[in-house]
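Hi F.,

I've been meaning to write this up properly since the lab meeting, where we talked about keeping a consistent format for the predictions we share between groups. The idea is simple: the sequence comes first, exactly as it goes in, then the structure tokens exactly as they come out, then a line or two of notes. No screenshots and no reformatting. I'm using this chain as the first example so we have something concrete to point to.
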Amino acid sequence: MELLEKALEFEHRKMSNMSTSDRVAATREAKALILSINEIYKETKDADLMDIMKRLTVKKKKIEKRLNGLPKDL
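Output, unedited:
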């Protein structure tokens, strides 16, 4: 499946030395991949798809944390 190949490629991609616009693009790409995989998961209930979605979500959250920075109240 082409979608799974894209997801695995995204998962193994280096995320260091990214500009802010690269980070935004990466989070949008991750969100699109997760939602697409979720549509397939709804029909098949395949545990492997759930694992891929979880790993992509973790990577997406790390990128978003870097985008948002530290909280203002610290």
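Notes:
Residues 2-9+20-65 form one domain.
The mean pLDDT is 90.

If this format works for you, I'll send the rest the same way.

G.
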